[in-house]
Amino acid sequence: MHATSSTATILLVDDEPNITDALKRAFRREPYEILTATGGAAALESLERHTVDVVISDEQMPGMSGSEFLSAVRKKYPDTIRMVLSGQATLEAAVRAINEGQVYRFFLKPCNPTDLMFTVQQALAHKRLEFQSRRLLREFQRQSSVLARLEHNSPGILLLDTDDEGAVVVDESDGDCDVKDLLAQIQQAISAR
Predict the structure, then answer these.
(1) Which of these, 13, 59, 102, 127, has the minimum number of CB atoms within 10 Å of its CB?
(2) pLDDT of residue 171
(3) How far apart are CA 59 and CA 44, in angstroms?
(4) Domain boundaries, the chain
(5) CATH 2.40.30.110 for the 8-133 domain, yes or no
């Protein structure tokens, strides 16, 4: 996915390779690139080499807990969606993962693969919507800036007459309005950005 491409990258992190292998099999029909790591340190190295959309991590791993790992991911890769898949979840572990890693979802092992895949799909759709929202906001801000410059250079230029259907009406018989000058000003304002 990476915001614009169609294939998302998912990183599965668990100190038990049979768990990551089972998850890879569960995702085999999905259009994702699947990466695996056997611990937090190896997963952080993988994140340095690859753009990852979703991380699904075990909580209890030697060396670095899932909460510590996801907290590091949140700080360094805030746009990466973070999930926990834990076999020995305690309330304390869940609270720590939510507070430190700001996880999207917390799953208990064994987890229904269909639920996990559906949640990943939802998370990726949410990420795409956030990306589009930020892009549209930037475009709106850019257009607002152009309009503000036009209004500053030609006060009243944004006051438009419209017909009953909302179409802009330009009356060239009005001595104050020259369509060619108006179009030239708009083009100049766009070029100046």
Answers:
(1) 102
(2) 63
(3) 15
(4) 8-133, 136-191
(5) no
